[in-house]
Protein 1
Amino acid sequence: MRRTIWILSAAFLWYGCGGREDAGEAPGHEVKVELTAFELEHGIGPVTEAIDIGEIQMERVARGADFFDSRCASCHRMERRFVGPPLGDIMEKRSKEFVINFILNPEEMVSRHPVGRELLQDYLTIMPYQNVTGEQAIEIVDFLRYYAETGEDVRD
Ligand code: HEC
């Protein structure tokens, strides 16, 4: 049942994208991306302004690692492409606000955000929302920040 819903929403998204691209190709007609400057840089979701999550905290790293293992590792590896993109350098590539918004609001990120839409075209799978709380998203970010800074995967 869940699977069917994904497939249906994927079909809808493709249809939606196609429509918009056609409109964009009409002469003199530009595709309107109605996102704020903040959303373009930091993603669309519950985080709507810069947040301060402080320094890396090892308790958060450990909890984030466990959570990552159970809800994310089925699709993400650190250093190579899998079902989804590698996440070893994600904290260097994107802001923490972007990553948190992606984790908390993946469906809208791949339907409305240009980076998300490009990722979806490349990976052809819609990342499902994993029932993550804001606090858990911050713990995952700490796990990913720790990996990016030290190269150490605390799950090993
Ligand atoms: C069913 C597979 C799947 C699961 C489970 C999953 N993801 Fe994803 N993720 C993807 C795919 C595929 C993409 C690329 C965008 C798309 O097509 O949805 C992605 C994209 C991302 C991105 C954006 C990468 C970028 O370059 O900006 C982040 C961050 C991310 N995932 C983190 C996570 C985290 C953290 C979890 C666990 C809470 C998770 N994902 C669970 C498949 C998954």
Note: The chain has a mean pLDDT of 87.
Protein 2
Amino acid sequence: MEFFDSLVLHQSQEHIALLNYILMVVYFIFLPFSGLMFSGTIISVYFKRRGEKEGNKALVHLAKEIIQISTINKNAGFILGVAPSLAILLIYIQLLHSSGSYIISFLFFSFMIYLAGVIFVYLYRYTMILDEAIVSPVKSGSSLQINEDLARLISSNEKTKNSSGIVGITLLLIAMLLVFGSISLSINTNRWNEVQNVFSLLFSLNAWLSFLFFTASSFTLTAGFILFRYFYWGKNGVEASEEIGKLLKRTTVKIIFVFALAQPLILLAGLFLLPDFSLSTSVFYNSVISVILVFLALNFTYLFLREGGARLSGYIFILFICVFSTGVVKDQLAMLNATTKHSVLLNTEYEKYIMELKEGGGAGDFSAKGEQIYKKICSTCHKFDQKLVGPPYKETLPKYEGKMDALVSFISNPVKINASYPAMPNQGLKPNEAKAVAQYLMSQYKK
Ligand code: HEC
């Protein structure tokens, strides 16, 4: 996509390394939050459905609290989800341009779908809150008068509440699959040219393993977070009756056991399937650390189940955050190893670009470069002998005869001159580019 190419800056090796570190930091925000939102919504919808089926209000209330906890607050979706996901797209554009792979397009679609998913999840959150605050009291005969408007509000709230959760989950699922497909494709440079549509993107065991690891880590993280909020931080707002407390404990511990046990298996499988060139000792040790952390967390969960104890729930949560982070670091390390070759290419391009600039800065002949800039940029608005958007050069240039500096200064920073034309927009040229095009124009206009 050409539009994306226009966003690209030239990078040196240092810039590329810096971009990779920024990418890692952004993933540290984006992935845990998305995981929390994704699995939190699933758990919430599960409790809501079960509560409605059994006519158990306490469960529906729990569902509302879980979606509230796991979406944090009304701005979090944007700050911790959408903005980082846009940042990831922009960074990949910088890192992978001219690589010939479709990763950037995949990430672009993933971003759009993710955005829609976040909107639906927050819609679900709002309708759940509204339901408990207004709709339920009205239905159970509070003193509020039901007029037509209110009845309409209630029925539309009901509909949105029942569909938005599922839609949100589905959209997030697709978006995350695309993200992990892209991450694993970016690791596997051999496939860059061959993968051109979503099906072949997802025809990758590695992508699915990354996605599964993400899902498993999300569930353990979310379960750990819920435990932590109820049993450690409980005094700050979230309160559970004894019955709900027990149910919550049972469910979250179950989730932790199932998904935490899956994690080491997924990691091992991933290590065996990763292409050799992206496998380094650091990737390997990283996976080993993940596994150790998972077992530590499982151990604490077991203790928690037997003895309870608020502090343990805190440890469990922190451990699962660490497990999640090791997953992020692992993918990034693999990507760094795999894209070294492409980084070298980008760096060579950069050096060539610098060389060109330097040559342009000397006293030599810039007319080739000047002509290029004129054709690419200026000629959309200027001709030599005809009025276009701007005045013909034949009219304006004579006054710059012998005043090259004034011309260069106008081109790099145009000011308003002639009342019968609009002002010329700044073309953002670098000083020696402005100089090159100025020389070219002066050498041409008299011809
Ligand atoms: C988007 C249209 C647009 C583009 C692109 C554009 N110009 Fe212009 N240019 C104008 C307009 C409009 C004016 C008249 C401004 C005025 O008189 O205030 C102008 C005026 C000028 C003048 C006359 C200044 C004077 O003293 O009267 C020069 C020289 C010039 N442009 C050079 C360039 C060069 C070199 C480029 C390419 C790097 C360029 N322009 C790109 C619209 C454009």
Note: The radius of gyration is 29 Å.
